[in-house]
Task: structure prediction
Amino acid sequence: MTEKNIHIRWANANDAEDLLKLNDAFNGVGTSIEEVKDSLALSDELIAIAVIDDQAVGFACAQYFKSFCYRELQGEITEMYITEVARRRGLATLLIAFIEDKLRSRGVTSVKILTGQENEIAIRTYGKSNYAITEEVMLQKEL
Result:
């Protein structure tokens, strides 16, 4: 894939079909276009999309919130996916920086990212953006 025009921007309802396809490749959840459009319209989630030559090739999602437990807003990049053919072009780093700028403008001073311990490529990518590995343990339960 030889790119002419790389662009990172906020996703909108017109991107619903592309986001649906990208998310299916990412995690296979199988949501509907209507669910994606509703999420884009009603959620406070930040969704950035990476485009090469007018083709959506990746996305990243983030959230932020205020808790009485902390003085600062808490931010998290919750999901990130780049199609196989578009990897190793710096898109993940561009998506991270794009989202960080928006979080910073909203008052967030610290951002976390969770990824699998064996996802070495992602860990290296996040490290390039100055994320440090912490000793935090994540526990999960299905309800």
User: Anything to note?
Assistant: The two ends are 42 Å apart (CA to CA). The chain has four helices and five strands. The domain at 6-128 is CATH 3.40.630.30 (Aminopeptidase). Strands lie at 6-10, 46-52, 55-65, 73-82, 108-113.
